[in-house]
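Example record used in the benchmark description.
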Amino acid sequence: MPPLRVGLMDPVMAARPTADTFSRASYLSAVAGRVDSYWVPDHINGQTPRPLWDPKYTGAARLLRSPDAAMEAWTLLGSLAARRRLSRIPLGIGVTDTGRRNPAVTAQAIATLNLLTRGRAMLGIGPGERVGNEPYGVDWTRPVARFEEALATIRALWDSKGELVNRDSPFFPLRNATFDLPPYRGRWPEIWVAAHGPRMLRATGRYGDAWFPGFAHRPQDYAARLEAIRSAASDAGRDPLSITPALWLPVFAARRRAAVDEVLSSTVVRAWALNAPAEFYAHHDAVHPMGAEFAGMQDHVAFTMDERTIREKSAQVPLPVVKAMMLTGTVDDVLDQAAVWRDHGVRHLVVVNFGVMQPNLRKGLATTLPFTRIIRALKRL
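Model output (structure tokens):
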């Protein structure tokens, strides 16, 4: 079995004293850890409810003014590429949105980055979330159908060889469209698809170079969905084993397991676990605090909740659900959990340090050391 490949996700939040202070520090740690990929998430807002962005809930609120000060991902990627020309770490958008961005613009942006980085760009792509689209006037009635058409449009433009493209589509019709950027040395950027449902899994098999879901899966669900993707790839005449099985997971680590469990029981962490769908809760014999039909992040409305409601809903989140959504515990605990995912098919694991998301800022910053050890050790799994 080949060794596990490891990626790191950028924090992407505007900081002090300069906006990219955290991003630069994160990137330098990626270089030092010799990771296999570096990713920048594409959000217009954050994932933490505003009432919880207070030092009594989140220590990081002492350092960052707002949980919604997300920097624009493509601009940040360009800055990283320009400043770090000597590094050869592949750079990925993880993941961009097919609702807010026209696929022709996305195809152009990632192809440009691929040329400027000499083949190091990767396109992570997904349908996005309601909270990142609907409040900004973007239609959210058919996100999966739009996502499928966006993938088909990107491939059609890349495969056009500069010829005029005409393609019918309910979302992105092409009429004498020209796309004449060249691929780098004959290769387009890899497309990493953040897919979960059956239609999106089939689209991954047809168009994707990698499968790149986030939470919430169980390892056995991941393995079953990977087989569905490979079956769809085979049906499309593609090599099913050419699709990289990847996964994004947060990490909560400390020197002692008890310290981690204490943090996982905090309001801010339990509130984040509301992003999981009701189906995931049911797998753990629990009912989602938002209701049995709640779709998780796709429908998350925590941004409009008041402080009292968020506290009440968060208190109903069972600890086993929280633990199942991330890698937690001591360094050895995390490595053992990562090995389970590897044994169920994962070959490229992208992680982010969630340890800073806790009430005590000092303890949050102290998670940097075990997280660094984990990154280095994962590459030996």
